[in-house]
Amino acid sequence: MLGLSYLTLALALATSSINASPVEPKTICKCLPGQSCFPSPSSIAAFESTLSKPLIHPRPMGSVCFPNDPTFNALECDAVKAKWHNGAFRTSVPEAAQFINWETMINSTSVDQCDPFGDVNAPGNTCFQGRVPWGVVNVTSIADIQKTVKFAAQHNLKLIVKNTGHENLGRSFGQQSIMLWTHNMQEIKFSNSFVPKGAPTVTIEPGVQWGTLYKAVADRGQLVVGGIGAGGSVGAGGGWPMGGGHSVLSPFYGLGVDNIVEETVVLPNGEHVTANLYTNPDLFWALRGGGGPSFGILTSVTYRTHPAPPVTAAFLVANTSTEEGRLELFKEWVKIHPDIVDAGWAGFWPYSGTQFFLTLMAMGNPPSNPKATSTLQSFYDKIATIPGVSIDLEVTKPYTGFQQWYDDNFIHSQNGIGFNYTVGDFSGVPAAVSSVLIPRTSFETSTDDLAVALAELTDARPFLVGGGVVSKVDPDAMAVNPAFRSMLSDITIALSWNVTSATPQEVHAVEQTVTDWANGIRDVTKSPGAYVNEAEILIPNFQEAYWGNHYPRLRAFKQSIDPNDLLIVRQGVNSEGWDDEIMCKTL
């Protein structure tokens, strides 16, 4: 009888479950302009009075070109058009992103943008605000950040952070948001014996850019591991270190996060704290690769600096006239890739159409690794014999140090050799991007398959930034993607579209193509590893791709310090449930 009672109870429970009404999902949303919850004009004015600078209420860059816009100014329009593709200029104003699709609202039915090159005189043609924020705090002090964080938390506002806007997923922009613009925090301080590590260091505020920092460090006879971008406009104190930070110098000195000694941040509760190995070590772990600004808004970062030896650079331009020759070139490159890394080379190997380029660097002049020259020469000799392959340029050049190499090839490109990186880096266009971290094992055991996958891409920008010191750091020492410790090269893919005429469906097709191409590489590597700073719009399983087995720890820590989801970004830690615009979350 007892068994029958249990059975009867089980059936009753099952029946009641079937007949019960489904639980409706709960939705919570940010408070937006125009809603009753939004702070009143007097509240905003009171907040503004506490800041060091007045609030900025920007319109999109192109608004001055629209005759029906209050900001219309024909002379200003000409100036804006002249600077539209100037990446350095775009970093210097709060209303501009490097890739303009992140200033634009794209949904299933429309592309709401502010394109000054379209027919601005057409009836009804409007400059849409898009994803340009309604308000900008021009940060000049830590107090500005703290006050803004508390104001945004109090009113449940959508808060974003921008230092330069070099962002591939639009996380430094956001529809109807309030922006912390840290670009004007520019202090640089040196120490010969920084506590707690006792090492030579440089401490910077979040607005400092790599071009400026490289020169300041070089003037002291040192170098610092940092990002590479034409014009030097990538930020040194924002998303780059918080996402991990790979560099042409990484194989010699480690990733950016491997060189961070200390960071200071404003937490989601408004508290300003220091994080290092001894103070707030869990926060320090998360900040080094967990993605920005998920765990706090960076107010300073302290990097270890290193002596600056002379370097040797190698440049190659190879041209292929047949598909067979192009594939054989890739097979030889994949085959020798691990040897190139072990021989002490790092750098870039972009390719486009029929051309294949190398821009490589080795420490020392001549290279300190005795195998450097012979290993690279063996690759040159091999591809020179491939039918359909011609070597158009092969140059080895000594430089006094990293700084001279960087200046010649990324700042003053008229002095550069081979691939023109100033032309290759583009701004003021829409773009969809992806990255795949290719592990050493793929180069060693899947040579032909990897070569085929690479050759199927008509255009790519791979970075040889792994191996060496990068591979010797404990994968769990910090939050950065553990896939970095076993990779040799990071391949990036980027596609654009016609901003004036593209429909939402055409934009989505480009985004899908980028993911399809990246999947072709991932199918070979069997590794989902990707670089969070080269985020992919349609990436499968971003949690595993960007952080691997570190994600559960990151998410638990994120939930503990940001229980109200103030600092949430697309594809960021604990962003599950939020829509792509971080407007509403479904629980």
UniProtKB/TrEMBL annotation:
GO MF annotation, one: oxidoreductase activity
PROSITE patterns, sorted: FAD_PCMH (PS51387)
Domain annotation FAD-binding PCMH-type: ranges: 129-308
Keyword rRNA-binding among UniProt keywords: no
Residues in the signal sequence: 1-20
Entry-linked Pfam families: BBE, FAD_binding_4
Sorted UniProt keywords: FAD, Flavoprotein, Oxidoreductase, Signal
Cofactors: FAD
Residues that span the membrane, as ranges: none
UniProt xrefs under PANTHER family: BINDING OXIDOREDUCTASE, PUTATIVE (AFU_ORTHOLOGUE AFUA_1G17690)-RELATED, FAD-BINDING PCMH-TYPE DOMAIN-CONTAINING PROTEIN
Family membership: Belongs to the oxygen-dependent FAD-linked oxidoreductase family.
Descriptive protein name: FAD-binding PCMH-type domain-containing protein
Annotated source species: Panaeolus cyanescens
